[in-house]
């Protein structure tokens, strides 16, 4: 997600509150929001994958188990 896409999300939000959106704009807004949410989830998962917990016995365990696809 780049700055232009985030700017467009904000523009569409403001327009939806002030004058409403066309069907095309509603579709664009939905797609952009979905992409934004997916990017946030991926970033969060990446962050969680890099966190480990030190156990009482001194061993280290990853916070999350990596998904095997």
Chart the SSEs and their pairings:
Blueprint: H1 3-18, H2 23-49, E1 52-54, E2 60-62
Antiparallel strand pairs: 1-2
Helix pairs in contact: 1-2
What would you note in describing this structure?
This protein is mainly α and 69 residues long. The chain is 62% helix and 9% strand. The chain contains two helices and two strands. The chain has a two-stranded antiparallel sheet. A hairpin with a 5-residue loop joins strand 1 and strand 2. The longest helix is centred in the middle third of the chain and has 27 residues. The mean pLDDT is 91.
Total DSSP E strands: 2
- Total count of helical runs of at least 4 residues: 2
Q: What would you report as the Rg, rounded to the nearest angstrom?
A: 19 Å
Helicity range:
55-70%
Highlighted features:
single chain, 69 residues, mainly alpha, two-stranded antiparallel sheet, 2 helices, 62% helix, 9% strand
Short characterization:
The chain contains 2 helices and 2 strands, in the order H-H-E-E. The chain is mainly alpha-helical. Helix 1 crosses helix 2.
């Amino acid at each position: 997600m780049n700055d232009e896409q985030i700017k467009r999300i904000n523009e569409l939000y403001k327009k939806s509150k002030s004058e409403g959106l066309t069907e095309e704009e509603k579709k664009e807004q939905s797609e952009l929001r979905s992409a934004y949410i997916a990017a946030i989830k991926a970033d969060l998962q990446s962050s969680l994958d890099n966190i480990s917990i030190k156990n009482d016995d001194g061993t280290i365990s990853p916070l999350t188990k990596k998904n095997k696809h």
